[in-house]
């Protein structure tokens, strides 16, 4: 299966560099390019894609707003991988809230970019749980106030609620398995059911929901 990728960046040299790296892979194909968020929406309206590699800082429409529009109420939308620099962590966090499946730094080695695109295309997140936790703790004031108990959590069993809490605390599947004394494959199954019940795309969105719902508080 070939993963179809759209590259969104206002710098032509960056797009050309990404295209060269991606087109060197037999399982990846660049099917479109866009110079900003608004252009990306036009490209996606006429192009079928699996992953959008999205810059954050762009004129006309930035990557956060474009991500929000791509992901909003559209379960069949391509997944968005946001690129950022060292000084734009806040933008990356905003993109995660908007529906992105993860983010990378722009100076990431080519092999990591390729691996991240494949991971996102497969339906997972490229943001390590510990990094997600740090970002959420740092930018918790950007979260909406949220109810003390979100009604969506009532869909979960007690075990699934426990697993969600551990995911939100930054534990990996292996660490969760050790904590609750089950196989790692069982944890993966639980996480999949949690995402399905809450209608979430990946564990990044699950962590955001846990914070927004009050299940987890920054530093708690």
UniProtKB/TrEMBL annotation:
<keyword id="KW-0804">Transcription</keyword>
<dbReference type="GO" id="GO:0000160">
    <property type="term" value="P:phosphorelay signal transduction system"/>
</dbReference>
<dbReference type="Pfam" id="PF00072">
    <property type="entry name" value="Response_reg"/>
</dbReference>
<dbReference type="GO" id="GO:0006355">
    <property type="term" value="P:regulation of DNA-templated transcription"/>
</dbReference>
<dbReference type="Pfam" id="PF00196">
    <property type="entry name" value="GerE"/>
</dbReference>
<feature type="domain" description="Response regulatory">
    <location>
        <begin position="4"/>
        <end position="121"/>
    </location>
</feature>
<dbReference type="GO" id="GO:0003677">
    <property type="term" value="F:DNA binding"/>
</dbReference>
<feature type="modified residue" description="4-aspartylphosphate">
    <location>
        <position position="55"/>
    </location>
</feature>
<dbReference type="InterPro" id="IPR039420">
    <property type="entry name" value="WalR-like"/>
</dbReference>
<dbReference type="InterPro" id="IPR058245">
    <property type="entry name" value="NreC/VraR/RcsB-like_REC"/>
</dbReference>
<dbReference type="InterPro" id="IPR011006">
    <property type="entry name" value="CheY-like_superfamily"/>
</dbReference>
<keyword id="KW-0238">DNA-binding</keyword>
<protein>
    <submittedName>
        <fullName>Two component transcriptional regulator, LuxR family</fullName>
    </submittedName>
</protein>
<keyword id="KW-0805">Transcription regulation</keyword>
<keyword id="KW-0597">Phosphoprotein</keyword>
<dbReference type="InterPro" id="IPR001789">
    <property type="entry name" value="Sig_transdc_resp-reg_receiver"/>
</dbReference>
<dbReference type="InterPro" id="IPR016032">
    <property type="entry name" value="Sig_transdc_resp-reg_C-effctor"/>
</dbReference>
<dbReference type="InterPro" id="IPR000792">
    <property type="entry name" value="Tscrpt_reg_LuxR_C"/>
</dbReference>
<feature type="domain" description="HTH luxR-type">
    <location>
        <begin position="149"/>
        <end position="214"/>
    </location>
</feature>
């Amino acid at each position: 299966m070939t993963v179809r990728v759209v590259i969104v960046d206002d710098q032509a040299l960056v797009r050309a560099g990404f295209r060269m790296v991606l087109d060197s892979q037999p399982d990846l194909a660049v099917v479109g390019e866009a110079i900003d968020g608004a252009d990306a929406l036009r490209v996606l309206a006429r192009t079928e894609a699996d992953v959008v590699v999205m810059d954050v800082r762009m004129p006309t429409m930035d990557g956060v707003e474009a991500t929000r529009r791509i992901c909003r109420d559209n379960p069949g939308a391509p997944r968005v991988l946001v690129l950022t620099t060292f000084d734009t962590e806040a933008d990356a966090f905003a993109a995660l809230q908007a529906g992105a499946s993860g983010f990378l730094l722009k100076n990431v080695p080519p092999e990591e970019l390729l691996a991240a695109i494949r991971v996102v295309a497969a339906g997972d997140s490229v943001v390590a749980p510990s990094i997600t936790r740090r970002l959420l703790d740092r930018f918790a004031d950007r979260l909406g106030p949220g109810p003390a108990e979100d009604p969506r959590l009532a869909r979960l069993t007690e075990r699934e609620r426990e697993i969600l809490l551990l995911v939100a605390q930054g534990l990996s599947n292996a660490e969760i398995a050790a904590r609750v004394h089950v196989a790692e494959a069982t944890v993966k199954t639980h996480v999949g059911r949690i995402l399905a019940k809450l209608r979430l795309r990946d564990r990044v969105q699950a962590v955001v929901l846990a914070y927004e719902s009050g299940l987890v508080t920054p530093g708690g």
